[in-house]
Amino acid sequence: MNRISPARISRLIGGWQTAEGKVPQQLSLAIGRLITARELPAGALMPSERTLATALAVSRGSVVAAYASLRDAGVLDSRHGSGHRIIASANAPGVAHTRLAGEMQALPEDIDMTSGALPPSPILTEALAALRGADLASVASGLGYDASGLPALRWAVARYYTDLGLPTHSDNILITSGAQQAVWLLANALVDASDAVVVEDPAYRGSLEVFRRRNARIVPVGISAHGLDMDQLERALRNRPKLLYLFPEVHNPTGRSLDDAGRRDLVDLLDRYPTFLVEDGAQNELSTIAGATPRPIAGQAKSDQIATIGTLSKLFWGGIRIGWIRANPPMIKRLASFKAVNDLGCSMFDQHLAVGLLENIQAARAYRHEEISSHLKVAEDLISGRAHGRWHWSQPAGGTAMWIHMPGVDTVSLCQEAQRHRLLLSAGPGYSAQENFGDFIRLPFVRPAETMQFAIETISDLALRRTVA
Fold first, then answer.
1. Three-state SS at 140
2. For a 10 Å CB count at each end of the chain, is N or C smaller?
């Protein structure tokens, strides 16, 4: 029987504690909302009172009382020796739905460190300021629907890949509503229940949620200090998985990139064990090395068995919901049919704007490189001054967050305690198919210096109090 881990509840439950109401009542309502939203499915076993209390940094008595309330409401069935099983969902208390991937809901006064999203690039704001009425009017033509994407934008993305050394035609491109929709489309088109999907461990948590919702059998492959564990990957590929999902460059959440030897090893394995690869390049443009946008793996391996994901949301702004998939034309046509059912097509205005943004990509790269590098230096100096060697991390090759190892610290519990200080954090287990990395956190560093100082001081103080003996 499926048992829900306390780390998963901690990740999904969000900012459940408020100033009003007793803790057991608030906890009961918060769990009830998760059950209503089917984030916690009927038939699954809840964690024990002790383990959930530890994860949520509350007393065991509070969890006992919350479970009793849910049992009285007919939501849980509690039997001695068998634990607490969810027996209802439709009548559970509360109606709110949780956010995808368990991101916490921030109140205006919260400091939200669960996302590494960047502020708008000045390249974007300048492009918006330069728009005239005639520019906007020209967008309104035809019927306004095109599931594959605006032809001019598909050609612009094709040129983007060609410039990176991967010859591409517009027929190879599908425009999506950001990289997240790209992952969703590929999972829904390629993965059925119980299919094996090989992922890195840790992995991007948004993709893990997508594969879980497809009821896929997720096969994790470890990442070492030297990159992807190629021996583990080879063993996984021998079993002929349906899909291999990787961040070869600027990995989310660790920020690491494969070195040249690792890229060659990956291409060799794909040649020996043909498997459809989803190459997530959502963070490829966020390098800490100036001018270092890598050539995609699809340019070195058999590209008819690879779908490459890209996006403008990282480089320019998260509000520009423009991403894409590069794949062989038959796959693009198939994915376009899925997208047509999902949303009929992306905003024509955003797509029109994106064509112009791609023409200014060099300036956008230079700006983001300077921004990311300067913020990273500030964050590393602050951590070094507070952690005194207790925390360990590798300098990321790119991205907007640090993957920090805090030996002896229960980071799931730490993140719950941090919420009471209005600081929202992401613990390591949320990025693992097996909920490993219970002593890691993902800490975005692209925040103002005073925000980073508050966050790091708060984490340091809490860590000292919660260090496991």
1. coil
2. C
Query: Of 358, 228, 208, whose CA–CA distance to 297 is shortest?
Result: 228
Measured distance CA(269)–CA(62) in Å, rounded:
51
Look up residue 317 and give its two tokens: 């702004």
Amino acid at 227: G
- Number of other CB atoms surrounding residue 60 within 10 Å: 14
Give the position of tokens 């008595």. 61
Query: In the block, which residue shows the tokens 């002929």?
Result: 240
- Amino acid making up residue 241: P
* Cα 187 from Cα 216, distance rounded (Å): 9
Tell me phi and psi for residue 219, to 5 degrees. Answer: -110, 110
Q: Judge if pTM exceeds 0.90.
A: no
Distance in angstroms (rounded) separating the CA atoms of residues 146 and 71? 50
For residues 446 and 204, give the distance between their C-alpha atoms in angstroms, rounded to a whole number.
Answer: 18
Angle, vertex CA 168, rays to CA 353 and CA 250, nearest 5: 75
Q: Are 235 and 269 in contact (CB under 8 A)?
A: no
What single-letter amino acid sits at 31?
A: I
| Residues 357-408: tens digit of each pLDDT | 999 999 999 999 999 999 999 999 999 888 878 899 988 989 999 999 999 9
What is the Cα–Cα distance from 63 to 79, expressed in whole angstroms? Answer: 16
For residues 364, 368, 369, 371, the Cα torsion angle rounded to the nearest 10 degrees is 140
**Residue-wise pLDDT tens digits, 18-53:** 656 688 888 888 888 788 767 787 788 888 889 888
The strand order across the sheet containing 227-228 reads 173-176, 323-326, 306-311, 277-280, 243-246, 196-201, 217-224, 227-228
